[in-house]
Every structure is written in C-alpha cells, then in structure tokens.
Write a structure and sequence with these properties.
β21 and β22 form a beta hairpin. The protein has a single domain, classed as Neuraminidase (6 Propeller). Strands 1, 11, 12, 13, 14 and 15 form a 6-stranded antiparallel β-sheet that branches. Strands 20-21-22-23-27 form a 5-stranded antiparallel β-sheet, covered by helices on one side. It has a 4-stranded antiparallel β-sheet with strand order 2-26-25-24. It is mainly beta and 419 residues long. It contains 4 helices and 27 strands. Helices cover 11% and strands 41% of the residues.
Length: 419
C-alpha cells in the first residue's frame, strides 16, 4: 500500500475543547465501528507494498555534515564516556537520538518526565560543541501543551524523536505525539531549524494514514537521496506491527512539500527499522523483533530504499529491544544491540564485513544485573570517531565516543557467525 500527500493535505484541526466535545458526542455504536475501521485499516496497511506511484531515488547522498574524506585513522585506541543529561534533570529519560551538524557540533534529543508516557514528558535537546567534552544544559523544545497549541488539537503526550540535517544543512526534528490511547494512537509531527537546533519552527502534523491517521512512530535516522528526498524509517503499531518508509520532499520554504508512506513486505511483529546504505543502490535494514523468535531481522533494498526484500531472521538475538546500525567509512557495518533473548541488562557492539550476512561480536558497552541499557543511537563524525548515546538505567542519557582502533581491539579474535 502506497499513500502520497501534498503540502495541502488536510489534517483534522480544532481546539482541544472542541475535540473533546466531538469525542463525547459519538454514540457507543459509532465508537465500536470506529475501532473496527481502525483494525481494518491496519490490516490493509500491513499488506505487501505497492510499487505504483512515485519513482525510486537514483542514488543516495550524505548530508552536508558528513565529510567522506577525513583524516587518517587514529592508531591509538580511544574510548571516552560523558553524560548528555545532568544528574538532576528528570525522574525518567529515554529515547535519545543524535546527529552531526554542519558546524561540527553534535545535537541530541530525548524525552524526559516522571515516567514514559506521563503528561509532563517533554522533548529536550543538548549540543556537544566541536572540540568540547561537555554537553550543554538541556533545552526544552516541546511538551504536550506546546504541541497542542502548535498543532491546534488535543495532545495527551509526546514521545520518540529523531533529529537530522538534510543535504542543505536544514535540521529536522520528527517526533511522536499521542492524542488518544497509548503509543498505538500516535501521529508524527515535523519541526525544522535554520540555526542548527537553537530555534525551531512550529510543529506540523503529517497525515500518514487516511483512516484516522493513527499509529505511525519513528525511532531511527533517515537516508538522503541525491534528489533531495528524505527516506525516514518509521513503523506502525496498532493491531499489526510492521515497518514502513516515509519519503519526505522538502519545500523551498524549509517545510514539507509532499510526502509518501510505503509499506514493506514481511511478518507481523517487526518495528523500529534502522537503515544502513551499502555499495551501489543497496541498503540494509535491521529490525527489532517483537515475535516469539526474538532474533534481529534484516532486509535489503536494491533501489536505494524504495522496495525491500522480506525480512529474514539473523543469528543476532533481540529481546524486543531497539537496535541501530551504521556504515563505517571503511565499509564495515556496525550495530549496537542488547545481546540477550530477554531483558536489556547489557549493550554490545557487533561488526559485519559482508553487508550484514555475518556478524563478529564486538566490545561490551554496559552490563549489570537487573538494570536497563537500551535505545542506542550511532553516528560517525567527520573525524572518523563514532558517537553512541543510549538510555542508562532510565535515569540518564549516556554518551560514549570511540575510534576504530578501540573497536578493532575489542573485536579481534572473535569469530564471525553466519546468518
């Protein structure tokens, strides 16, 4: 199934009070019918993708913040740790994402509040200035009150967000908001920044599903096409859980000109896709597995992320937890994941030298009984160093910086395991 929307695509609007009146005025029978329609819509959306409409990107292109030819690789192993969030920030923090900025700074986003899904949860950003080891104080960007005002609708809570620069250096934030129910009742919204995340435009809600526009979430970074389009991996959670691709076309005013949602073939239970560009027109996708098999899944695209193979299980365990992937400048694929069939008590790296067919276990990042280390996010900076952020025991966001020499030292002697 393939849906396209222009910048004039209608969105349900109105004041929070008016929305509440409309909900109360629905008879119970209408609410049941509405729920059934939602389930049918999810089933339709879960079918195999349609190749009708639109064209595949001819090639992918790195963002302005990434420099292909950097300095020579460092020979001495380096690993540093820092905290993105201060010790007194929020009772619970989760879902960090980071990006390289054209200036050389790093920008992080996450959500924090009394607990996940609470009404007081807000999205925060912080930056690591180039050459610095200290993250700036968190800045609140959007909470449910701000989102409700900007979107002109009732908002119950906000959640996952990603930040990234496009090919022209404009910084995007795509985040989740929920107006009814839990995360399966979510919608996606876009903010943009012309000053590297210091100030942001008002939120714009994307209409990604013609049936109530429910249940699209985001977690990982996009791929960028040379024609300017942004291929953002997203996923659906209502009734059926499956990955999707959201293709955004930036407009001349810094907003969204049009966008298209495309479903992927595959089984129910796969969410939070992470994309890794390979050679030529190939792209690797790694997926979180919510099925009983508990294995990281992989899928491939031969046309720059437009169409995909059916996801297949790998030898890498996945305890229903987020995984992220990154192609290093030497061509290898790096993933970070929870190495267990259940629980999130450890966080480990793994490397592939053959495009994701086999994986060699790498260094252990964290491990502690009855603790949580989760939702990792990877980027490689222009100097070749790799930056990782993740949820540390649900109380802080941690940052680990390392180089290839450290990574290789921790991987040496370990045997690769085939898919």
């Amino acid at each position: 199934m393939d849906f396209a929307f222009s910048s004039s695509a209608p969105a349900v609007a109105g004041t929070p009070a008016a929305a509440a009146v409309r909900r109360r005025s629905l008879p119970w029978s209408h609410r049941v019918a509405l729920g059934a329609l939602t389930l049918v819509a999810a089933g339709i959306a879960g079918s195999d993708e349609s190749t009708e409409g639109g064209t595949a990107p001819e090639r992918l292109s790195p963002p302005a913040a990434v420099v292909a030819a950097g300095p020579a690789a460092e020979s001495a192993p380096l690993r540093r740790e820092a905290w993105v969030t201060p010790p007194v920030h929020a009772a619970s923090v989760h879902g960090s994402a980071i990006c390289n900025l054209p200036s050389g700074d790093l920008l992080a986003v996450w959500y924090g509040g009394t607990r996940e899904g609470a009404a007081d949860v807000a999205l925060y950003t912080s930056r690591l200035p180039a050459g610095s080891r200290t993250w700036t104080e968190p800045v609140m960007v959007v909470d449910r009150a701000i989102a409700a005002t900007e979107l002109d609708r009732a908002v119950k809570k906000v959640g996952n967000a990603v930040v990234f620069p496009d090919r022209n250096g404009l910084v995007w934030m795509v985040y989740v908001s929920v107006s009814m129910g839990g995360w399966s009742g979510s919608a996606l919204n876009v903010k943009t920044s012309r000053d590297e995340g210091r100030t942001w435009s008002e939120s714009r809600r994307l209409t990604l599903n013609p049936f109530l526009n429910l249940s699209t979430l985001v977690r990982n970074k996009p791929i960028l096409a040379a024609d300017g389009r942004i291929g953002l991996p997203v996923y659906h959670e209502l009734a059926f859980k499956f990955p999707q691709m959201l293709w955004l076309t930036p407009g001349p005013d810094g907003g969204v000109k049009e966008y298209r949602i495309r479903n992927l073939p595959g089984k129910n239970g796969l969410i939070q896709p992470s994309l890794v560009p390979l050679d030529g027109d190939r792209v690797l996708m790694v997926l979180r597995d919510r099925s009983p098999e508990r294995r990281m899944r992989t899928a491939y695209s031969e046309d720059n992320g437009w169409t995909w193979s059916e996801p297949a299980p790998s030898t890498v365990p996945n305890p229903d937890s987020a995984v992220d992937g990154l192609r290093l400048r030497d061509g290898r694929i790096l993933i970070v994941y929870n190495h267990a069939a259940s629980g999130r008590e450890n966080l480990r790296l793994a490397l592939s030298a053959d495009g994701g067919r086999t994986w060699r276990p790498g260094p252990l990042i964290e491990a502690a009984v009855s603790k949580e280390y989760s939702y990792p996010f990877l980027v490689e900076a222009a100097d070749g160093r790799i930056h990782l952020t993740y949820t540390w025991e649900r109380t802080r966001i941690k940052h680990v910086e390392f180089n290839l020499a450290w990574l290789d030292r921790g991987t040496a002697g370990r045997e690769a395991v085939a898919q």
